[in-house]
Design a protein that fits this description.
The protein is an alpha/beta fold and about 260 residues long. Helix content is about 60%, strand content about 10%. It has a 5-stranded parallel beta sheet with strand order 2-3-4-1-5. Helix 9 runs parallel beside helix 11. The chain is extended. The structure holds adenosine-5'-diphosphate (ADP) and magnesium ion. The site of magnesium ion has 5 residues, from helix 6 and strand 3.
Length: about 260
């Protein structure tokens, strides 16, 4: 055999191997098999150990890619986590309950969460952080502002794809409905929101944030009967988190002003 023919023959298995790994969709094994082989060769590890190391890396990467996809699919407006939430700045929030919810067990029990409080008290932050934890745990999540969702539902209805949109709901583990209460709905809008809550009932957990106490929900939903039925489903199994401290944004800007004034003195 000529040297070039020899080189081609020795190259062939790796070419084929790489083709198979692509077909089998093992990108991490494909990327790392040579480096891991060389490390294992130096250490004198056996073949099963070599294979174990590669498959472990593939599994870890696969889980990471899936979590990234779930986070993308959740469509968070801004990514926030519990690490960046300062509980000391908002002592009205039940930290123990937040930490318990972050384990995601309420999602297995299809329980809901209601976050009630004034503007700027960290409701959206906490809702996003809890939903982010759920994504990291392998759960399917979708974040909506209530207003955005109702608009999307009305559009879907116009375009005769409401059925398909509503069918997505039970496939989710958690649906975040942020900011109930700022904008009142039309009659149809309120009915569509009720439809979402009904479909989610005992199948998908809902995490609702609102600045409104229960007594005022009728004001945004219009009908008293519909509000009653919606609250009934939502609160059947619910964890309530109340944030009634002052606005974090307001406090920060006040602190900044104070610092500025000090600087001027
Ligand atoms: P809400 O939804 O209750 O109106 P947000 O969650 O939007 O409030 O909070 C407003 C801003 O302040 C966000 O940028 C949020 O990250 C931040 N924030 C609020 N509370 C806290 C907190 N306790 N620790 C850290 N950041 C906070
Ligand atoms: Mg908010």
């Amino acid at each position: 055999m000529t040297t070039t023919a020899k080189a081609a023959a020795s190259r062939k298995p790796t070419v084929l191997l790489e083709y198979h790994l692509k077909q089998l969709k093992l990108p991490t094994v494909l990327r790392e098999y040579a480096a891991v082989a060389s490390a294992c060769g130096k250490e004198g590890t056996d073949y099963p150990t070599y294979l174990l190391r590669l498959t472990e890396r593939e599994l870890i990467d696969r889980e990471r890619r899936a979590a990234e996809r779930r986070i993308q699919a959740a469509k968070f407006p801004v990514l926030k986590t519990l690490d960046s939430f300062d509980f000391a700045a908002q002592p009205s929030i039940n930290e123990a309950l937040v930490r318990e919810l972050a384990t995601g067990e309420y999602l297995d029990r299809r329980e809901n969460v209601l976050l009630v409080g004034n503007s700027g008290t960290g409701k959206t932050h906490l809702a996003t952080a809890l939903a982010f934890s759920a994504c990291a745990q392998g759960r399917r999540v979708r974040f909506h502002t209530v207003g955005g969702l109702v608009t999307a539902l009305l559009e879907a209805r116009e375009e005769r794809r409401l059925g398909r949109m509503l069918e997505q709901i039970p496939r989710m583990a958690l649906l975040v409905l942020d900011e109930l209460g700022y904008v009142p709905f039309s009659k149809t809008g309120a009915e569509l929101l009720f439809e979402v809550v009904s479909r989610a009932y005992e199948r998908t957990s809902l995490l609702v944030t609102t600045n409104l106490p229960f007594e005022q929900w009728t004001e945004v939903l219009g009908s008293e009967r519909l509000t009653g039925a919606l609250l009934d489903r939502l609160t059947h199994r619910v964890h309530i988190l109340e944030a009634n401290g002052e606005s974090y944004r307001l406090r920060q800007s006040r602190q900044r002003q104070k610092a500025r004034r000090k600087g001027q003195d």
